[in-house]
Design brief:
By secondary structure, the protein is mostly helical. The chain contains 14 helices and 2 strands. It has a domain of 224 residues: Peroxidase, domain 1 (Orthogonal Bundle). α2 runs antiparallel to α4, α3 packs across α4 and α3 packs across α5.
């Protein structure tokens, strides 16, 4: 049974939507949005995604992260793809987005270029990011989920918005739950999305260096880390201050496969980031971690459902957005 407060908030949001036609929690997106206007849409996306993933296997993790970092900040509107200008420091250049990988941006550019040749001015960068993410999750072994289309690209990209809207590696569980809750996600969604984002891909040493060097006055290493794992990370990251590109896989056992190994790892002290490991110790998330570690099907179902939700966060439709000619800059009026 939903709480009275939740019902009140839902009614409030519906009433606001009715008046503004904006910030629609259930925008009118459709699965066949491009069927007539861009008949080769699916084929072009599939070819671009497959080629890129085969040549650069880290593309799937990079794109999933890019999609999440876009949707959590001012909604899914491709604002994370915009490049800075002399007058505006954009989301992409926020400190918290410094580690977003070039392969994901390159994939979106390639797909956009191919679509502009086939059906110019039709497909939004936001839809490209949403659908390529889904296809890549599937390619690396994750669940299939539906991606309705029709999102428009946003008009705003601001670095300061990213800093306050995205969880940091040292975020407390209270902060993370509150941040996800504000976007309509449950604690189960939070754990599933974190696991999905970190069962593939890697993190740079600086993101977890405080766990393996000078952790506290009594211990050099975070005691929740598996000692052998910590030793390996210390060797790997010994020179990270001089070489900031050094990184470790978020899932050291099956880093290229979308599976539930991330949760099994957490239970053995093999979580790389502090914000990951806390999931296995906080009483609100520990039972969910244990469930997903035991049951990959439940994890996949929750993740797929949470990704569908993510794709509809504060979506811009109609005149509240545009279809950019280039994904890295707004159209000039």
């Amino acid at each position: 049974m939903a709480s009275p407060l939740l019902l009140f908030l839902v009614l409030l949001s519906l009433s606001a939507t009715a008046h503004s036609g904006h910030h629609n929690s259930r925008p009118r997106l459709t699965l066949d949005y491009y069927a007539k206007t861009c008949p080769k849409f699916d084929q072009i996306i599939l070819e671009t995604v497959t080629t890129k993933q085969m040549s650069n296997p880290t593309t799937a993790a990079a794109t999933l992260r890019l999609f999440f970092h876009d949707c959590m900040v001012d909604g899914c509107d491709a604002s994370v793809l915009i490049s800075s200008s002399s007058s505006n420091k954009v989301e992409k250049d926020a400190n918290i987005n410094a580690a977003l990988a070039g392969d994901a941006f390159d994939l979106i550019t390639r797909a956009k270029n191919a679509l502009e040749i086939s059906c110019p001015g039709i497909v939004s960068c936001t839809d490209i990011l949403a659908i390529t993410t889904r296809n890549l999750v599937k390619i690396v072994g994750g669940p299939f989920y539906k991606v309705p289309l029709g999102r428009k690209d946003g008009f705003v990209s601001n670095a300061s918005h990213a800093e306050v809207s995205l969880p940091k590696v040292n975020s407390s569980m209270d902060q993370m739950i509150e941040m996800f809750n504000a976007k309509g996600f449950t604690v189960e969604d939070l754990v599933a999305l974190t696991g999905g984002g970190h069962t593939i891909g890697f993190s740079h040493c600086k993101e977890f260096s405080n766990r393996i060097f000078n952790f506290s006055k009594t211990s050099d290493v975070d005691p929740t880390l598996n000692p052998k794992f910590a030793e390996r990370l210390r060797k790997m990251c010994a020179n990270y201050q001089n070489n900031p590109t050094v990184a470790a896989f978020n899932d050291p056992l099956t880093p290229g496969v979308f599976d539930n190994m991330f949760f099994q790892n957490l239970m053995k002290g093999l979580g790389l980031l502090a914000s990951d490991q806390i999931l296995a110790t906080d009483p609100r998330t520990k039972p969910i971690v244990e469930l997903y570690a035991r049951n990959q099907t439940v994890f996949f179902e929750t993740f797929a459902n949470a990704m569908e939700k993510t794709g509809t966060v504060d979506v811009k439709t109609g005149r509240h957005g545009e279809v950019r000619a280039r994904c890295d800059r707004f159209n000039t009026k």
